[in-house]
UniProtKB/TrEMBL annotation:
This is Rhodanese-like domain-containing protein. InterPro entries: GlpE_sulfurtransferase, Rhodanese-like_dom, Rhodanese-like_dom_sf. The lineage of its organism: Bacteria, Pseudomonadati, Bacteroidota, Flavobacteriia, Flavobacteriales. SMART domains: RHOD. Residues 42-124 form the Rhodanese domain. It comes from the Bacteria.
């Protein structure tokens, strides 16, 4: 009987150690290129968020993007979004969107995409085509 208890404890501790070392696949921030972002936002359920300030947003933004500014109210302002639907986030070059993606992850959003290089990379890529 003692051997069974030790075996059970060994298996349990191995399982717990393995699970604590792996990250959940459903709550990761995925860095995506402009091409990948175009495919992602073409899906109806994707929530596209521009986190730049109002003037930056007004000077040009990705079609159908919501302007939810990265400021002290960001966490409260994302509360109206659906955590079960994919969310794609971008800023000018990637600094603010990285912080916002982290906040979205902590808030429990399931699928998070961040545009690599931000809006500048998006517009640069469009100008090449």
């Amino acid at each position: 009987m003692k051997n069974n208890n030790w075996m059970f404890l060994f298996i349990l501790s191995t399982f717990l150690t393995f699970n604590s070392c792996t990250e959940s696949k459903g709550n990761q921030v995925n860095m995506v290129s402009s091409e990948e972002m175009k495919k992602i936002i073409s899906l109806d359920e994707t929530q596209l968020i521009d986190v730049r300030d109002f003037n930056e947003y007004e000077s040009g933004h990705i079609t159908d993007a919501q302007n939810i500014i990265y400021d002290e109210d960001f966490e409260a302002n994302i509360s109206g979004l659906d955590k079960t639907k994919p969310v794609a986030v971008y800023c000018r070059t990637g600094g603010r969107s990285e912080k916002c993606a982290s906040i979205l992850k902590k808030a429990g959003f399931e699928k998070i995409y961040e545009l690599e290089g931000g809006y500048e990379a998006w517009t640069y890529k469009d100008n090449l085509e």
